[in-house]
Design brief:
Order of helices and strands: HHHEEHHHHHHHHHHHH
Strand content: under 5%
Strand order of the largest sheet: 1-2
Distance between the termini: 60 Å
Number of helices: 15
Radius of gyration: 24 Å
Number of domains: 2
Structural class: mainly alpha
Length: 346
C-alpha cells in the first residue's frame, strides 16, 4: 500500500491536533462542530506563521482558545471583504478613466479579427502609446488577443463581438486588474496625467511624486486583491512591489495623523499590509472615503466587544494600536463626511 505524506484525518484526529497545539476548547462536541464549520486549516495554519505560535514547542501560547481563533478568522474575513470592496471601486475608476481618455483621443474602434497593433484608426495602434517602459507592444498584443478571442467570462466583449465595434469601455470592463494597470502604464504622458490627477487632485504635490505613487500603489493593490480573493491569509502579507511612500511626506495637509512620522519607516516596510491600506485610502475619492470609514468602524466595533482579541489582531497584522483613530483624525481634518461613522465604540 502506498504511503502518503498527507493523510485523511477524521474529526477525532483533528481534535487531537488541537490538543497537540495546546488549543483549549469547551468540549469535544463543540470542537467538532467548529471544525465542520471553519476547518482546522483555516483556524490554525495561517496563525501558526505568527508570534502566536511557538515553533520550538510546536504549540500556540498558553492562553489560546478555539473561540479566539474563530474570532480572528472572522475578523480577517470581514477585513478582506472590506478591502476587496474598495479595491474594486479603485479598479473600476481606473477602467473608466482609461477608457474615457483612449476613446476621446483615439476613437472607439479596434479590429475584432486581427492582433495587428499597426492598424490605422485602431485605438490599440502602438503609435497611440508610449514605449518608455519597454513593454508597450506586448501589452497591446495581450489586449488584442482578448478582443479577438475573449475568454468565457469576458461576457461584455463576447456580446459586442457581433456589433460594429468594441469600444474601450467594453474592453476595459472585462480586463483583470493587472492588465488594466499595464494599459495605464503605457498611456502617453498627457492621458496618464489626467488619470493621475483624478486620483491625486492636489496641485501642491509634484507630478513625479504622484505618478510614482499611483503606479506602485495600484500594483500593490492588485497583489492585495488577489490575496483576498484567493483565500490566502493577510498575516504576513507582502506586496510584490513596494509602495512609493514619498507622497506620504507630501500630504501633511491631507493626512496629518495617519502615520507617526518619526517611527513610520522603521516600523513599516513599504510592501506590507498597513502601508497598502494607507495607499488605498489615498486613492479613494473623497466621496467614497466616508463609506470606507463606516465599514472600518463596524468591524473594529465588533472586536471592541472582545477586548482580548484587539491586541492580538493588531499584532498579527502589524497595525498600530490606534489605527481606526488615525483614520478618523484624517477624515475630520479633510473634507470627508464622518457623520455616518459609528463612534460609540471609541
Amino acid at each position: 500500500m502506498a504511503t502518503y505524506t498527507h493523510v485523511f484525518k477524521n474529526y477525532i484526529d483533528q481534535i487531537n491536533t488541537l490538543d497537540q497545539y495546546g488549543i483549549k476548547y469547551q468540549s469535544k462536541a463543540y470542537a467538532t462542530h467548529i471544525l465542520k464549520v471553519y476547518s482546522l486549516e483555516n483556524l490554525t495554519d495561517n496563525y501558526k506563521k505568527t508570534d502566536l505560535f511557538d515553533t520550538t514547542l510546536g504549540k500556540f501560547n498558553s492562553e489560546m482558545t478555539l473561540d479566539t481563533l474563530v474570532n480572528l478568522y472572522l475578523f480577517e474575513c470581514s477585513l478582506k471583504t472590506i478591502l476587496l470592496k474598495y479595491i474594486r471601486i479603485i479598479e473600476d475608476e481606473l477602467k473608466e478613466n482609461i477608457s474615457y481618455q483612449v476613446a476621446e483621443k483615439y476613437g472607439v474602434w479596434t479590429s475584432p479579427s486581427s492582433i495587428d497593433i499597426n492598424t490605422a484608426n485602431d485605438y490599440l495602434n502602438k503609435a497611440n502609446y508610449s514605449d518608455s517602459s519597454g513593454f508597450r507592444d506586448n501589452t497591446l498584443i495581450d489586449l488584442k488577443k482578448l478582443v479577438v478571442s475573449p475568454l468565457d467570462y469576458q461576457k461584455n466583449i463576447i456580446q459586442y463581438k457581433n456589433s460594429s465595434n468594441i469600444p474601450p469601455r467594453v474592453l476595459a470592463k472585462d480586463l483583470y486588474f493587472s492588465l488594466i494597470i499595464k494599459w495605464f502604464k503605457i498611456l502617453n504622458k498627457v492621458e496618464k496625467d489626467e488619470i493621475i490627477n483624478t486620483f491625486i487632485p492636489h496641485p501642491n504635490i509634484l507630478r513625479g511624486t504622484k505618478a510614482d505613487f499611483v503606479v506602485t500603489a495600484l500594483k500593490a493593490l492588485s497583489d492585495l486583491r488577489n490575496n483576498c480573493a484567493h483565500s490566502e491569509s493577510l498575516c504576513g502579507f507582502k506586496a510584490s512591489s513596494s509602495v512609493d511612500t514619498n507622497i506620504f511626506s507630501s500630504v501633511d495637509g491631507i493626512m496629518p495623523d495617519l502615520i507617526a512620522r518619526e517611527n513610520f519607516k522603521k516600523q513599516y516596510k513599504r510592501d506590507e499590509l498597513y502601508v497598502v491600506v494607507i495607499a488605498m485610502y489615498i486613492l479613494l475619492d473623497d466621496t467614497i472615503k466616508r463609506y470606507f470609514l463606516v465599514d472600518l468602524s463596524i468591524i473594529f466595533g465588533e472586536i471592541k466587544e472582545l477586548d482580548y482579541i484587539k491586541p492580538i489582531m493588531l499584532s498579527i497584522f502589524n497595525f498600530p494600536d490606534d489605527m481606526f483613530e488615525k483614520f478618523m483624525n484624517v477624515a475630520m481634518n479633510t473634507n470627508v463626511d464622518t457623520k455616518k461613522v459609528d463612534l460609540r465604540y471609541y
